[in-house]
Task: structure prediction
Amino acid sequence: MNGSAGGWLPFAPCACDTASQMDMSLTIGLSAGLAALAAFAGWRGARPPNPHKGPRLMPWRFIMLAAAACLVFVLGHLVQILTGAGQA
Result:
């Protein structure tokens, strides 16, 4: 059932002593990009509609919410990196 690798998947089990692939500089850059995207999409979504141009083709409010939701997880990862939580 478990296979030859010792896990449920056909991959080798991941060693716990490996470093995270998302270091602090990548996490800070990703959080800054997501915050900028959320702010830009919030600004675009709050603009009044222009019936002469037709309907909006980009769901700016949904993009703002999705970017903000991803930002919450990235900031949680940043807190984990800064506090050193989860390291053995």
